[in-house]
Amino acid sequence: MSIDPSTLSWWSLIPQHLDPAFFTLFGDKLFEFGSSDSGAGFAVRWYGVGYLLAFWTVWLWMKRTMRVEKIDFPEEHFELMFTWAIVGVLVGARLGYVLFYNPAFYLSHPLQIVFPTSHGHFAGIAGMSFHGGVIGALVCTIGIARKKHIDWRKYYNLLCYSIPLGYTWGRLGNFMNGELYGRPTRSAVGMYFPNDPVQELRHPSQLYEAFGEGLLLFGVLTLLRRLWPKSHVLMGPLYVFGYGVVRFFIEFFREPDAHIGLGWMNLSRGQALCFAMMAGALLWAFLELRRDRKLAAKP
After folding, report:
1. What residues contact 172, with CB distance under 8 A and at least 6 apart?
2. CA-based diameter of the chain, in Å?
3. Which of 99, 128, 136, 298 could form a disulfide with 88 if both were Cys (CB 3.0 to 4.6 A apart)?
4. Rg (CA), the chain
């Protein structure tokens, strides 16, 4: 289908002018900004750049918080935990997407897990699951913390406070890729995305998520951190629960995966995973509060 001329505006056409590639190597030229005209070469996508910016932003904010709040955490422990958190996020996010969203395809095409291609060219790893990334980061960092006798709770209270700032970059990367767009709408916020096969106005749900799961959630956590002292030991579960709540509601504006659609009570796969996140966060908070009470009761 073609774009309806009556709905055209500078806003609605923004995605049509975005190039998902930041630069391309060994394409039509040795180096060129954006995609090569022929589609050849190795493209470094904005989505990948977003990941780098996300890690850098989280690292900077954690260091700033430690300095401002005078939190004592050994530098070597900080770097070790941060490195394993990155490993856990990348591996967990990819495997999470494979297992949660499209296991049948990847079981029959296992090479696509680590080297996704399109028309014979490397297409970039865009299929990443946030929920899988959370699980991967938890497994990797808690595992190394126990092995090295590091206080992982103190680290996670810093990490989970800082994650929303970094997460914003990831959703902006989705927007640059023209992926994970929203459901059809007739409102003025609607946009035309080049990857949409029916070319109709859709919610820019990537921008909703960048704001809601990123900046808004960070603001809420900052407010709690300043006004409620107990929140300093609950940043982990507060972040996980807050993300689950915000993502659950934004999913009503996001287009479900075509091969999955909607499930029970017309909820998406992402909403089902958010329910699991919120339940896990409540259990985590209960265990942390019980542990805190036991420590306070000791003579």
Report:
1. 46, 50, 206, 207, 210
2. 74
3. 136
4. 21
pLDDT at 123 over 60: no
Report d(CA 51, CA 212) in Å as an integer. 18
The tokens of 211 are what? 């704001």
Give 256: exposed, middle or buried? Use CB within 10 Å, 0-12, 13-18, 19+: middle
CA-nearest of 3, 1, 6, 2 to 188 is 6
Tell me the C-alpha to C-alpha distance, in Å, between residue 241 and each of 190, 205, 245, 281.
29, 20, 6, 5
pTM over 0.85: yes
Q: Which two tokens stand for residue 232?
A: 């300093």
Q: What is the mean pLDDT of the chain?
A: 87
- The pLDDT of residue 229 is above 90: no
Nearest residue to 241 (alpha-carbon basis) of 215, 270, 293, 276: 276
| Cα gap 19→4, rounded to integer Å | 22
Rounded Cα distance between 271 and 34, Å, is 34
> Residue for token digits 């470094």?
44
Tell me, what DSSP letter sits at residue 6? G
In this structure, the number of other CB atoms found within 10 A of the CB of residue 295 comes to 9
* Residue 44: other Cβ atoms inside 10 A: 15
Q: Which residue has the higher pLDDT, 159 or 261?
A: 159
Find out whether 183 and 202 touch, Cβ atoms under 8 Å: yes
193 vs 45, higher pLDDT: 193
- Enter the DSSP assignment of 10: T
- Cα–Cα distance between 87 and 140 in angstroms, integer? 8
